[in-house]
Design goal:
Blueprint: H1 11-35, H2 44-61, E1 64-69, H3 76-84, E2 101-106, E3 111-116, E4 139-141, H4 146-150, E5 164-171, H5 174-177, E6 180-184, H6 194-203, E7 208-214, H7 221-229, E8 237-242, H8 250-264, E9 273-275, H9 278-289, H10 293-303, H11 305-350, H12 356-368, H13 376-413, H14 416-458, H15 463-479, H16 487-490, H17 504-530, H18 534-620, H19 628-654
Parallel strand pairs: 1-6, 1-7, 2-5, 7-8, 8-9
Antiparallel strand pairs: 2-6, 3-4, 3-5
Length: 673
């Protein structure tokens, strides 16, 4: 029988463990420097302490990410406003949609920043050390102006600000303080177009999907298709049914939606549904503010937001916090492994173990095999980098083919006015989604390649020491920002609309003459049927007008479709020209950094072994009695490290995580939990 899992440790307890671990490692680093001043020693303990403090800081400030998705005009932004209790935070007008991602997270005071595209700050000085084409620093904006930076123009369907990549908002509200961040996805287009691709790409880095529909009608085909495609992107889905105060038939709609999910997206069939009224939620807040507490309680219950709020806190925020705490413990245990192994080896030397010198010499010999240019790990890195570039290039070409197919379908089925207004924005969303997907694929591929290379070295480089010298340094390279930058995906060329002059005598002749023959024939037929003189003339004129209008409409449709097709071809040609070279350059750069980091790790390990062997030979030449004090110090250090390690193992078990075996090559992987 499996023993019951212990109660999960508190946030404060885990962070206290991390603080004590980092402090002990820092003391160990200072002691090592004091005992051998002037020696060039690998900074394993100091690096371990920095990684532990960094992971603890992320756990203290991190939050579970909820990506909020829905078709336009479903109440998506209103629901976010209701959840955070700021009613005019995001634009909710019927004809206004969100045009960029808006991230809403916890902060000590209300504030908002617009993150601009690279090159958007032209004319301003770049920060010291920044590349000339780097993205400018975030621009603080008043909360009441978020719509100006984040919304699309209701007439053109394009963002008000073409230089904004996304907006981040901080609010001191309880739900966000519980460990949640809400991501409002762009509202341009529908889920059948670029919006769907962008939302799916965002889900790859999300903890949960909040899918918003309204109570007026059942799930649409495009919504069901999106949910079917989202199956593998997120482990948690929550459905919110809005506008229950406006649609009395919402219970029947809800039941129908459950049936549709069971048939078309069964992975989401068991997900919870929350019928809500944003209007009642706001009225409840107004009543509470006016002191009408009984009325406020009734309205809040009617709004349906309390159960939704409770689930988001209990199931998603708490689970995300627990996973982050588990990562803290895992990183701390990995950081403790190297100094503990060093102290245990040092104690063996102080005890004058006669077998230790031979072990160290064998390790040095194995280490020498990793240094030549022909070493196996270098071949694995070169081959893996080539395969990764090929995989990313193929994925990129397939994504562009998908964009082309969806664009051509949009061009073939849209009316001229809608096509001219909506197509550029939808294409921008699709291309930005390609960038996000490409970046995610590059991250995953680089992580797999890194692990393969590290395994080639793991038989020689101790897992903890590899982590100290190589893994941590490489991870900082990949995690500092996007692997592939998305400026070309969101700064596309404008769609050029052609013009056609219909005025003047020639324009009239061009439009009218081709229809005269058909109209005259129609008038003749009417005359034969009716034997009337006036009626055939009226009928012929009416037919002429209809045919002329239809001809103009066909000409307009052909013109707009031609403009859209040329725009699509231009965008895809530019991307297919520029991006393959950028993929190659970025993968080459990051694999070069990985090679440098591993070379440094190998050099550090060789230095450590040389020092260890010299220390051991010196100890062998010393009288045993003279080493007693040093042995006592080593035992005390081992005791302190072992006590912390055992505490960490107990915390890991309580968090439901199997602690890594220090002998496991992947034991030092800070992403593993």
């Amino acid at each position: 029988m499996t023993p019951p899992r212990p109660e999960a440790p508190s946030h404060a307890r885990v962070l206290d463990f991390a603080t004590r671990t980092a402090a002990l490692l820092e003391r160990a680093a200072r002691t090592a420097a004091a005992e051998a001043p002037g020696e060039d020693r690998p900074a394993g303990a100091a690096d371990g302490a920095r990684r532990v403090r960094s992971e603890a800081a992320r756990a203290a400030g991190g939050a579970a990410s909820l990506v909020v998705v829905g078709e336009k005009k479903r109440g998506k932004s209103s629901t976010i406003n209701s959840l955070v209790g700021v009613w005019d935070l995001l634009p909710v007008d019927a004809d206004v949609a969100t045009g960029v991602h808006v991230v809403v997270r916890h902060g000590e005071r209300p504030r908002a920043e617009a993150f601009l595209l690279p090159g958007a700050g032209a004319g301003t000085a770049a920060p010291d050390g920044a590349a000339p084409d780097a993205a400018p620093p975030p621009q603080p904006i008043p909360l009441e102006r978020i719509a100006e930076y984040a919304a699309v123009d209701p007439v053109t369907g394009r963002p008000h600000r073409l230089d904004v990549h996304h907006v981040e908002v901080e609010l001191p509200v309880p739900l966000l303080a519980a460990g949640l961040e809400l991501v409002d996805t762009p509202g341009v287009g529908g889920l059948v177009s670029g919006h769907a691709r962008l939302a799916l790409a965002a889900l790859e880095n999300a903890d949960a999907l909040v899918f918003v529909v309204d109570g007026s009608s059942e799930l649409t085909r495009s919504e069901l298709d999106f949910l079917a495609r989202a199956t593998e992107r997120t482990a948690e889905t929550v459905f919110v049914l809005t506008k229950t105060d406006s649609h009395d038939a919402w219970p029947a709609v809800l039941e129908r939606n459950r049936e549709l999910l069971a048939r078309h997206a069964p992975r989401h069939a068991g997900a919870p549904w929350f019928p809500v009224s944003n209007r009642a939620r706001r009225d409840a807040a107004d009543a509470a503010g006016a002191g009408r507490l009984q009325e406020a309680a009734e309205l809040l219950d009617e709004s349906g937001f309390e159960p939704l709020d409770a689930l988001l806190r209990r199931r998603i925020a708490a689970r995300g916090a627990e996973l982050r705490l588990a990562n803290v413990v895992h990183v701390a245990l990995a950081a403790l492994a190297a100094p503990l192994a060093d102290q245990e080896l040092g104690l063996r030397s102080l005890q004058q173990d006669p077998t230790l010198a031979a072990e160290v010499e064998r390790a040095e010999e194995a280490l020498r095999l990793l240094q030549p240019d022909s070493a196996q790990w270098r071949r694995v890195l070169t081959t893996g980098a080539r395969d990764l570039k090929n995989t990313l290039q193929l994925g990129f070409r397939r994504s562009l083919n998908d964009v082309r197919q969806q664009g051509e379908a949009k061009i073939a089925t849209s009316e001229p006015a809608a096509l001219a207004e909506e197509f550029p924005a939808e294409l921008e969303a699709q291309v930005e989604a390609v960038w996000v997907q490409l970046d995610n694929a590059a991250r995953r591929g680089l992580a797999v390649l890194e692990e393969r290379v590290r395994r080639e070295c793991a038989t020689v480089l101790d897992a903890g020491r590899t982590d100290a010298g190589g893994r941590g340094a490489e991870l900082a390279v990949v995690e500092d920002g996007a692997v592939l930058h998305a400026e070309r995906g969101v700064a596309l060329p404008e769609m050029v609309l052609s013009t056609h002059r219909d005025g003047g005598a020639l324009g009239v002749i061009e439009n009218v003459i081709p229809s005269v023959g058909t109209a005259a024939t129609f008038g003749t037929v009417v005359a034969l049927v009716t034997s009337s003189v006036l009626l055939p003339a009226v009928a012929g004129y009416a037919m002429l007008a209809v045919l002329t209008r239809r001809r103009r409409q066909r000409a307009e449709l052909g013109r707009v479709r031609g403009d859209a097709t040329r725009h699509l071809n231009r965008v895809l040609t530019e991307l297919s020209t520029e991006i393959p070279a950028q993929i190659t350059a970025h993968v080459d750069e990051l694999t070069d950094r990985l090679a440098v980091a591993l070379d440094r790790a190998i050099a550090d390990e060789r230095l450590r072994l040389e020092r260890q062997l010299a220390d051991h030979r010196r100890n062998l030449a010393t009288e045993a009695a003279d080493l007693a004090a040093a042995r006592d110090r080593a035992r005390r250090r081992i005791g302190s490290l072992t006590t912390l390690r055992d505490e960490g193992i107990a915390l890991a078990h309580a968090l439901g995580v199997t602690p890594a075996d220090p002998s496991d090559p992947a034991a030092s992987d800070p992403d593993r939990s």
